[in-house]
Amino acid sequence: MPKKAKSRQFETTDRINVPTGRNGKHKVIVGQILDNLKVLDKGQSLKIPLDDLPDSVVNIRSALSRATHKTGHAVSTAADQDFLYIWNS
Fold first, then answer.
1. Cα separation of 67 and 12, whole Å?
2. Which one of 30, 31, 76, 84 is most buried, counting C-beta atoms within 10 A?
3. Each residue of 48-82: pLDDT tens digit?
4. How far is Cα of residue 16 from the mean position of the Cα atoms in its chain?
5. In a 10 Å sphere around its CB, with 0-12 CB exposed, 13-18 middle and 19+ buried, how is residue 59 labelled?
């Protein structure tokens, strides 16, 4: 007796239509930070007001860490009550 085909519970799509990059909610701010770091003079750091961040410092640092590990770009960060500081290390 032949096996009965299972019905699908979900839609299907061709793999060509599947996004392969990560376009998370931090993509814009992380891209801006990386662009600014490229032209940053030695001995300087970016000083970003916490109020300008679209998410918490922890989440922005995590997103930045993921992005820099991908590219091999070494950066360091620090924060106080008002600002997030980022520099090339």
1. 30
2. 84
3. 999 999 999 999 999 999 999 999 999 999 999 99
4. 23
5. middle
Two tokens at 44?
A: 């300087």
Q: Is 75 helix (H, G, I), strand (E, B) or coil?
A: strand
**Which has more confidence, 10 or 1?**
10
Entry pTM:
0.74
**Residue 84: is it exposed, middle or buried by C-beta count within 10 angstroms (0-12/13-18/19+)?**
buried
Tokens of 38: 């490229």
d(CA 4, CA 45): 64
Q: Which CATH architecture is the domain 24-88 placed in?
A: 2-Layer Sandwich (3.30)
Convert the pLDDT of each residue in 6-41 to its tens digit. 788 889 899 888 877 667 789 999 999 999 999 999
Quote the tokens at residue 14.
Answer: 């061709």
